[in-house]
Amino acid sequence: MKNLKKLLATVTVVGMLGVAGSAFAATAMTPAEVVSGLTGKTVEDLYKERSAGKTYGTIANEAGKLEEFKAQILEQKKTVLDQRVKDGRLTQEQADQIYNSIKNNQATCDGTGSAGIGKKYGAGFGQGSGMGLGQGAGRGAGMRNGGGFGQGMGAGRGMNR
């Protein structure tokens, strides 16, 4: 009976976490989705333009929607940062620093994406068309000279949605 209660509690917690993750995923939009909503272009067409070398900011700028794009992207990144603080992946201080850097950069943003703030802070907002879900640097055990174990280092890469 105790094992059944533990199982039910575990299933309940896992289910609640899944719902919370789904709710977050439903609110976060990719830059392509933001530009699509502003310009009326399909996400697929935007992916094609992006793969041809245009940034989403450039596409929004060409449509006369750069300021709206910047405001919505700032809001999206704030949502991602807040979730990462909630998940314990960032401190509030780190999130504030990243957010303020993005906000300050937007004052002179021309839509070309040249600032690279996500890369600078390791924020992992994603590359190309997706929001980042990257994990930071990791440590692991590595084999050394066929017999002993040594220290290993690894760097995680973000996955795009």
Automatic annotation (TrEMBL):
| Database matches in InterPro entries | DUF2680 (IPR024485)
| Highest taxon, organism lineage | Bacteria
Query: Which region is the signal sequence?
Result: 1-25
What segment(s) does the record annotate as region Disordered?
Answer: 136-161
Entry keyword set: Signal
What is the protein name stated in its UniProt record? DUF2680 domain-containing protein
Q: Which species does this protein come from?
A: Desulforamulus profundi
**Record lineage:** Bacteria, Bacillati, Bacillota, Clostridia, Eubacteriales
